[in-house]
Design brief:
The chain is an alpha/beta fold. The protein contains 8 helices and 7 strands; from the N terminus they run βαβαβαβαβαβαβαα.
Length: 223
């Protein structure tokens, strides 16, 4: 089953949020999902220790020595395996990228994030040369307005399209519900709409992103 790495050298781009939102949404809809939490702060491992009943499984004991074995084992046991990668280039990142059927590169609509996304793409291309294989990737815009895109966002989107950089059609919008997941240590379906503004819209956004991800990885696996 597919391994999906979430990578960006820049901190704060939304790697852990993207991973938790999409993975927990898939798990809530019946998929068997594992996350390898490789972020030094282990935010998803800490989330898993909370009260959530979402069936998502998290492994926070991952290092460069065991990640390859764990990925090979988990991909036989689960329908989706996500890897929330650390920000810096490392052997751990290299080994995760080499096993991935898709790399998600989350970015915010800013020139700095776009530059860091370019670095992530170069890292992927270096791994492709080293392992003589294609490693598919997609840019994912995070913390975007659910209403009208900003002028800067439209400019960056246009630049990426001009460079034929693949990207998700669905963005992960700016929603308080995504922060509430970490604060309350609950999944989206467990949060109370009375306590979280825009929760139905956040759930709908997460579902659409998960659906697009399924379409992409199912096509990659079939190919």
């Amino acid at each position: 089953m597919p391994v999906i790495a979430v990578a960006n050298p820049k901190g704060g781009a939304g790697k852990s949020t993207t991973t938790l939102v999409v993975a927990s949404t898939l798990a809530a809809n019946g998929a068997s999902v594992m996350i390898l939490d490789c972020d030094p702060n282990r935010p998803i491992r800490d989330w898993r220790r909370g009260p959530s009943k979402n069936p998502l499984v998290v492994d926070g004991d991952v290092n460069e020595s065991n990640i390859t074995t764990k990925l090979d084992t988990y991909r036989r046991q689960h329908q989706f395996v996500f890897v929330d990668l650390e920000g810096t280039a490392s052997r751990l990142m290299s080994r995760a990228l080499a096993r991935s059927q898709l790399v998600i590169i989350p970015i915010q609509a800013s020139p700095t994030d776009a530059e860091q996304a370019a670095k992530a793409i170069r890292l992927i291309q270096e791994e492709e040369q080293s392992f003589e294989k294609t490693i598919p990737y997609r840019i994912l815009f995070t913390r975007t307005s659910p209403a009208i895109p900003t002028k800067l966002e439209r400019a960056i989107l246009s630049q990426l399209r001009g460079g034929h950089v693949p990207q998700f059609g669905t963005h992960l919008n700016e929603r308080s519900a995504y922060k509430s997941m970490f604060y309350h240590q609950l999944a989206l379906e467990e949060l109370d709409p009375a306590d979280v503004n825009g929760l139905p819209q956040a759930r709908d956004n997460a579902a659409k992103l998960a659906e697009e991800l399924i379409e992409i990885v199912v096509g990659k696996v079939a190919a």
